[in-house]
Amino acid sequence: MQSKKVVLLNRPVGALKETDMGVFDETLAPLEPGEVLLEIEHLSVDAFIRTTFDEGAFHGTAGLGQAVMALGTARVVDSRFDGLNQGDAIFGPVGAQTHAKLPGAMLQKLDESALPARCSLGVLGLATGMTAYAGMAKVAQIKQGDTVVVSAAAGAVGSCACQVAKNLGARVIGIAGGSAKADYLLNEIGCDAAVDYKADDLAGQLSAAAPDGIDVFFDNVGGEILDIVLLQINERARVVICGAVSQYERTGDVRGPSNYLKIPEKNASMLGFTVMRFAEDYAEIQAAITEWVLAGKLKLPEQIEDGIEQFPKALTMLFSGGHMGKLMVAP
Ligand SMILES: NC(=O)c1ccc[n+]([C@@H]2O[C@H](COP(=O)([O-])OP(=O)(O)OC[C@H]3O[C@@H](n4cnc5c(N)ncnc54)[C@H](OP(=O)(O)O)[C@@H]3O)[C@@H](O)[C@H]2O)c1
């Protein structure tokens, strides 16, 4: 079986470039006992992939010349694993490639009866909808009437996080770059207000949108945006660090929040989390998300790029802001 895979050619310094990756042909060896042959249908384009290109990365470091790490959904083409049969849909760490030969034990068989398989990367995805739900419901513990601000709000986690907070009774303000994303937040995602951080006076826009201050900040970006929001938090605010996409391409030290003294001054908390912490709650979280999706109370628009050759460009798009909702590649 022939496959095409995206390979890391060199460790990027600063901004990721498409040319840091290349696409190569590979001939897959015959299946060993316990393995399955997969045709990959959708690849999730996630911010954490960029972090794996650095030495000592939290999610593991990608080897030069190896297939880039990626979560995906796939169809089983052939199986020598007892739990999976030809035609089954799976989710797993399939890698950025068109086909893969993997141990069946590391894959999760998908039930496609309620939602299509690719939803396991988006609205039901561990690194997307489930992260948003865990961060809002379990970490921020949103209460009715909270004023909630979300950064990178028009992205995958952000789009879900805004709607989860709305469904839990909050007033939600999304921060994103550009007027098209502000329109998307207001008209597609249902935010109460939208703030364009690429326009002038982010602090003034925020205080106009949240005149009574901010109770919860769900931060995907870090850096300057985190500092500006910290100056507007309320007494007992909860600042939830989901990620810091502004810092992933930095050379040198990560920039920490200069205004962190607002945390003690406001008797506030700053809590970080990874979705993996909530492994015991995955079934409950998936059930809650599915119920909202089927009831029309949670949706995640998808942007799907066609062809494995588009994967390097799609990954750079996460940092240049060229997509809305969930970005995927259909190889
Ligand atoms: N804690 C966890 O377990 C967990 C799990 C998954 C993901 N995450 C985190 O969730 C965040 C979102 O990830 P995602 O995969 O859903 O990506 P995404 O939000 O779909 O894409 C990233 C977005 O970040 C914005 N952005 C990029 N550089 C920026 C900058 N310098 N300043 C401000 N905004 C910037 C861009 O939107 P604009 O056009 O608005 O700039 C871009 O669309 C990431 O921080 C990721 O690490 C955390």
CATH homologous superfamily heading of the largest domain: Medium-chain alcohol dehydrogenases, catalytic domain
The SSE order reads EEEHEEEEHEHEHEHEHEHEHEHE
CATH class of the largest domain: Alpha Beta
Q: Please tell me the CATH architecture of the largest domain by its name.
A: Alpha-Beta Complex
Estimated share of beta-strand residues? 25-35%
Structural class: alpha/beta
Question: Which hetero ligands occur in this complex?
Answer: NADP nicotinamide-adenine-dinucleotide phosphate
Distance between the termini: 15 Å
The best one-word shape is globular
Secondary structure blueprint with pairings:
Elements: E1 2-8, E2 21-27, E3 35-44, H1 47-51, E4 72-79, E5 89-92, E6 99-103, E7 108-109, H2 129-140, E8 147-150, H3 156-167, E9 171-176, H4 179-189, E10 193-196, H5 202-209, E11 214-219, H6 223-230, E12 233-241, H7 262-265, E13 269-272, H8 282-294, E14 302-306, H9 311-320, E15 326-330
Parallel strand pairs: 8-9, 8-11, 9-10, 11-12, 12-13, 14-15
Antiparallel strand pairs: 1-2, 3-4, 3-6, 3-15, 4-5, 5-7
Helix pairs in contact: 2-3, 2-8
The site of NADP nicotinamide-adenine-dinucleotide phosphate (NAP) has 30 residues, from helix 1, helix 3 and helix 9.
